[in-house]
Design a protein that fits this description.
The protein has three helices and eleven strands, in the order αββββββββββααβ. It has about 160 residues and is α+β, with helices and mostly antiparallel strands. It has one domain: Jelly Rolls (Sandwich), CATH 2.60.120. The strands form three sheets. A six-stranded antiparallel sheet has the order 1-2-3-10-5-8, covered by helices on one side. The protein has a three-stranded antiparallel sheet with strand order 7-6-9, with no helix packed on it. Strands 4-11 form a two-stranded antiparallel sheet. The longest helix has 10 residues, at about 140-150. The protein starts with a helix and ends with a strand.
């Protein structure tokens, strides 16, 4: 890397604004219908720049097809396998796969195979942790749709078959 490039990188502001370490226990994890979400980096900890989650999904779990209008989403598959959808397009993501969905991209995933999946989910900028925190308050589908709208997420419906 050139000295000019190194100089440019060294002037970028730090992404983390508070030094911290998160132990590997499950403290603070949200659990709903078998989905375990552990927030690794909150909006406050990252100065609003990103959120990082570890998500454990049970076999057969599926997100709806949805669009994030203000956040880019990156997913790294730690364990298991996913069928990932970008609109009608379907891709298979095995352990070690990395996926990136720029904001405005319709997407979703379904856990495939007999065992669950474990993923790292990064959203840029931060804010999605607040949506995740509200999950426990959603009693019905209309609650989910209203919460999603507040966070500029459009729920489009179930994934294609």
């Amino acid at each position: 890397m050139s000295n000019e490039a190194m100089s440019e990188i060294s002037t970028l502001p730090s992404l983390q604004t508070i030094a911290y370490m998160l132990q590997s226990d499950r403290a603070g994890a949200a659990n709903r219908r078998g989905l375990q979400i552990s927030v690794k980096a909150t909006t406050i900890q990252s100065g609003g720049r990103f959120n990082l989650f570890e998500v454990e999904c049970p076999p057969g779990f599926a997100t709806p097809l949805h669009i994030h209008y203000v956040a880019d989403v990156a997913i790294y598959v730690l364990e298991g396998a996913l069928a990932v959808f970008w609109g009608e397009d379907r891709k298979e993501a095995a352990t070690g796969s990395y996926l990136f969905m720029p904001r405005g991209t319709p997407h979703g995933f379904r856990v495939t195979g007999a065992r669950g999946a474990r993923i790292l989910h990064l959203s840029v900028p931060g804010g999605l942790d607040k949506f995740i925190h509200e999950r426990e308050l959603w009693a019905k589908t209309s609650d989910l749709l209203a919460a999603a709208a507040r966070y500029k997420i459009e729920i489009m419906g179930p994934l294609p078959d």
